[in-house]
Amino acid sequence: MSTASQALKKHLEQGFTLFEMLLVIALIGILLLIADMGNIIRLNTTYYQARQEANNRKIAAALLQHARTNTTQGFLSNPYTGGGYYSTILDPSDTTLAQMFRSANLPPAELNSDGSSGANVRVYQTVTLTESIPLDFRSGPLTTITYQYGEVHLTACMLSNSCNRSPLPGASTALTAANYKTWTTTAPDLPPTLFSTREIQKQMLAATSERLAMIRDQAIARVNVRRLSADAADTTNWYPYSYATGAPTTPSPNMAGSDASVNQGCWDGWYQLNAANVNILPQLGLTAAQYGITAWGARIEYCRDYDPALRGANSLPHYAALRINMNVSQALPPNNTLQSDNLFITF
């Protein structure tokens, strides 16, 4: 047996020294600590991403609520560029939107960035889209709603870094109307939260449809009551006209005598139902403030002698009509010159 083998055998028989055992224990401890540190780092990264994605969802919900309750047309606020940020969430001067975020328990420091000392910037983008939808959703004349598709994501780009640039910070490409169906972020940017105002616009369309139906139904009910009390041979057009205060037999404004061939089929109208000098809606038991406009605030107009076939003024049978601009989300009044821009409800 060699000298080295004899020494090893003797060492094993005598056992480890205290120093050797402490050294082994220390090495094992270091290895365990390194493994734990890796786990801690992974847990911190997971928590950070989960927190930022949760904030993104809260931000998206607050932006939608702001569009629903604080804007006339149900549109999202514009992305903000300023103060060193590009295409981000909050314009500090927009106190109404800021209050919406406070109500959602979103820390102000974690809106336009992650709130860290390096301030990884947050990106907010929108694209505008349109869709043709029947007035009653399943049937009726077509309307065009305008809605927005948006996204919020956090970048790995600090506010002071060169990657924080115009028009878009970080690694991801821009969201566009051409790519929105397949668009997503590019690493190291975190995954996006996607959202849309389409449902808001559809709710506003439903409210507008209900208003038009209420005006139509109330007008028809009024006509039927008067026809029942009139002679059987009566040919009067009982659809209401606007009249001066205290003078129910004096039309005011008097729009009779219009040429239907150049007035989109109307011999008597179009009355602006939200106008202060037009009292059609009060005669139907409706308020002009609610029923004189669409849900977007565009005026509704009324014709009491509607005859697109041009049979002649006051010809039997009598028809009336309502009209609005078919591009409903734009809050535009009916187009007096381009009939194809308008939507007509006849009764």
Give a verbal description of the structure.
This protein is an alpha+beta fold. The protein has two domains: 39-196, no CATH class; 203-346, no CATH class. 33% of the residues lie in helices and 21% in strands. It is built from six helices and eleven strands. The strands form four sheets. It has a four-stranded antiparallel beta sheet, with no helix packed on it. The chain has a three-stranded antiparallel beta sheet with strand order 3-4-5. A hairpin with a 2-residue loop joins strand 1 and strand 2 (85-88). Helix 2 crosses helix 3. The longest helix is centred in the first third of the chain and has 53 residues, at 18-70. It starts with a helix and ends with a strand. The mean pLDDT is 92.
Q: What is the mean predicted local confidence, pLDDT? A: 92
Strand arrangement across the biggest beta sheet: 8-9-10-11
Rg computed from alpha carbons, rounded to a whole number of angstroms: 35 Å
Helix/strand/pairing class, anyone?
alpha+beta
Distance between the termini: 117 Å
Order of helices and strands: HHEEHEEEHEEEHHEEE
Main beta sheet: 4 strands, antiparallel
Identify the overall geometry.
Answer: rod-shaped
How many structurally independent domains?
Answer: 2
- Beta content: 15-25%
Low-confidence stretches: none
Question: What is the total tally of β strands?
Answer: 11
Residue share in helix: 25-40%
Number of helices: 6
